[in-house]
Amino acid sequence: MNITKKKKAVCVMSGGMDSTLSAYMMKHDGYEVIAVHFNYDQRTESKELSCFDNICDTLNVKERYVLDLDFFKQLGASALTDKTIDVPVGGVEEGVPITYVPFRNGIFLSMSAAIAEKEGAEAISIGVVEEDSSGYPDCRESYIKSMEQSINLGTKDTTHIKIHMPLVNLKKSQIVQKSLDLNVPLHLTWSCYKNEDAACGVCDSCRLRLNGFEVAGVKDPINYK
Prior knowledge:
Layout: E1 8-12, H1 17-28, E2 32-39, H2 45-59, E3 64-68, H3 71-75, H4 104-119, E4 123-125, H5 141-153, E5 162-164, H6 172-181, H7 204-216
Parallel strand pairs: 1-2, 1-4, 2-3, 4-5
């Protein structure tokens, strides 16, 4: 009797709306989700981890990796990891904002590739959004494609990993609508850069999220100050 081996995807999951939808899309496409979450001393670390755990429960994820990357605090240079730098609240910034964490996605993808090779997964998913994001250089489609090439050059010849970025060309309003279509538990997700109790509503991430819900014509289910 032939037993079909289920395909696996390592899903980078922050606890936010984008990465959650990305993981749901992978499961919808028939992948077994292997979830990976990174604690990097970001301001909302505890809240994001709690969201990750709750979202994994809704996806019935069996394999979960929670990795601590303490060096990001030592590196600093970002309002998310350096408490002496204020998170901007005056509106979505032009160019690369101070909330950019240097090469964060590159490091996340490298570690996810190691997990994928160990687990025999043929895919990695990451919820990067290029068009309607905060201007982070490591969210660009061309960059992710180059990382895919590098990962496959740097792993075993028998390892073939595809990086899926299903949201990269979507607007936030489209992400909200797609999440509703797939019954993604948006009430369990978190986007705020500043707070862990009630979202601030004024940081870049909150503004982009709230605008996405407004354009989609639905109410955001999380609490705001």
